[in-house]
């Protein structure tokens, strides 16, 4: 009798697990067929690409345009308002994350460019190199 109860409990667990898997699959299908799914994937990929320098500024402008165009719900989307809200919020959150990750990168690039210009100015102001035999250490001290 105890084994029947264990078997019954095991079947209930399996059925509950199968039902949960079916619900998860149905949700995945709803999400992947949503009109904003493509934008969601693209925004996610853009977040992953932040470290690369290729067309970062261009994709940022395009993303805002796509998101603004995609936030207007059509009549077919009104049947699933929670999913619509989630997709819009997730796209916006990913877009903000990308902006937050890009900000330090842009600051770093600006700093490096400034330092490069300063170094170039320093080297063009002093045409003689320290390795040049005609330059003495007293000449270098008088410059600084």
Question: What does it look like?
Answer:
It is found in: Nucleus. It holds the Pfam family KNOX2. One of its GO terms (cellular component) is nucleus. With 144 residues, the protein is mainly alpha-helical. Among the domains are: 33 residues; 60 residues. Helix content is 76%, strand content 0%. It contains 5 helices and no strands. Helix 2 packs parallel to helix 4 and helix 3 packs antiparallel against helix 4. The longest helix has 45 residues. It is elongated, with a radius of gyration of 30 Å. 6% of the residues are buried. About 6% of the residues have low confidence.
Q: What would you call the shape?
A: elongated
Radius of gyration: 30 Å
Q: Which structural class do the helices and strands define? A: mainly alpha
First CA to last CA: what distance? 97 Å
Mean of residue pLDDT values: 77
Question: DSSP strand (E) fraction?
Answer: under 5%
Order of helices and strands: HHHHH
Helix content: over 70%
* Biggest sheet architecture: none
Unreliable stretches (pLDDT < 50, length at least 5) are 71-78
Task: Break the fold down into its secondary structure elements and pairings.
Layout: H1 2-32, H2 37-48, H3 56-70, H4 81-125, H5 137-143
Helix pairs in contact: 2-3, 2-4, 3-4
Q: Brief description of this entry?
A:
This protein has 144 residues and is mainly alpha-helical. It has five helices and no strands. The radius of gyration is 30 Å and the shape is elongated.
